[in-house]
Amino acid sequence: MQKTVDVIKTLLKQLNDADVNTMFLVGGFSQALPLRKAITQAFPDKRVLTPRDAELAIIKGAVMFAQTPDLLTTRVMAKTYGIDINEVFDASKHPDKKKTEICGINYCEDIFDALVKEDEQVKVGEKRSFFFSPVHPEQTTASLRFFSTHNKKAQFVTDPGVVAENVAFQIVSPDVSKGLHRNIELNVYFGGTEIKVTATDVTSGSSAKAALRLVTESDVIAWNK
Fold it and tell me: Which of 32, 66, 114, 116 falls 20 to 30 Å from 166 in CA-CA distance?
């Protein structure tokens, strides 16, 4: 019971900008009178309610959402999501150990480029677009590796707490006539239960889609934002 109360206290601290005055207890455990009493005593300024058929509330909610997905209009991101990119090396902010030379240009590798941040609110169905370019003029394929973290200070995908997400994502860019002056358009779609990504090579129209599956390694050069 104390662990449950502690979790609720943590959640309320994270919602310090929200005016929370009512809590609903749902699920089978909500029928336990000692637990309800402990929560009521721990939060005397909140209304603590248990709806009818509380033990079925979660499964009913899942069924309702499956039948009517637009019931959910916004979501708060639980983690920061981003991709692994290369940036032109800047000695004032990039460590030497991350420096790599490609075609005579120094790049910083393993950059964690955030697409959406933890605690950020996004609308269900919202689309965000990002553009990237190759770091090698003859590069014809690239793997986009997706990562997530609770570390709000993460700068590199090798930083503590940054983990690879479940994405296998490769995009083909067959026309190399423009060298480095090519774009990959990355569209990120926020659904009610997942994040979908689509990458399109603007020159050729080649595209690929994925929905956050595990990528353990990349055998091609990353793309530069």
Answer: 66
